[in-house]
Amino acid sequence: MADLHETTARCILLYGPMVLCAAGAREPFVHLPGGHVEPGETVLQAVHRELGEEIGHSVRHLRKLAVLANTWPRKHDTVHETMHLYAGWFMPKVSGCLPRSPEEGTRLQWATMDDLYARRVFLQPPSTWPYIIQAAQRRYYR
Predict the structure, then answer these.
(1) Once rounded to an integer, what is the mean pLDDT over residues 115-141?
(2) What percent of the chain stands above pLDDT 90?
(3) Distance (Å, rounded) from C-alpha 129 to C-alpha 119?
(4) C-alpha span between 69 and 34 (Å, rounded)
C-alpha cells in the first residue's frame, strides 16, 4: 500500500441556484470542475487549463477560497490530495444551458443546492460543500 500525493485545482461555478458538476464516465459521484496541477504549472494556470478542457469555456473573476486536504483509498493505495479551491463566473452560451464538455468521457450537470443537500447528486469530496454554500451566499461568482 502506497501513499500517493496529488495537487488539484477546482472551481465552484454557479448559475443562479445551481452549481456546475463534472464526472468521469464510470464515476458514481460528481466533483467540481478542475483537475490535476501539471509539473511546471502554477495552480492558477492549472485551474484555467482544466476548466477549458472540462467545460470548454474560459472563466472570469476567479477568487481563491481555500486550500483543502482530502484523503481517500484508491485500490490498494491511499491518496492525499491538496485541493486549491476557487469560485469563478462564466455565462453559458444559452441562459441556463448546460455546457458541453470537449473532454471525452466527462459529463457535466447542473445540481441545485437542494440536490446536493438531499444527496440526489453525490458530490465528492464533501469538504467542498461549505464553500459552495458560502459562494452562493456571498455571490463570489459575480
Answers:
(1) 84
(2) 46
(3) 11
(4) 16
What sign for the dihedral angle of Cα 74, 27, 124, 87? positive
- CA 50 – CA 35 distance, rounded (Å): 6
Closest CA to 47 of 102, 10, 12: 10
- Report pLDDT digits (tens) over 45-97: 999 999 988 888 778 789 999 999 999 888 899 999 999 999 987 776 655 57
Q: What is the rounded CA–CA span in Å between residue 37 and residue 95?
A: 31
Q: Using an 8 Å Cβ cutoff, are 71 and 81 in contact? A: yes
Residue (of 87, 78, 79, 72) closest to 130 by Cα position: 87
| C-alpha span between 72 and 106 (Å, rounded) | 21
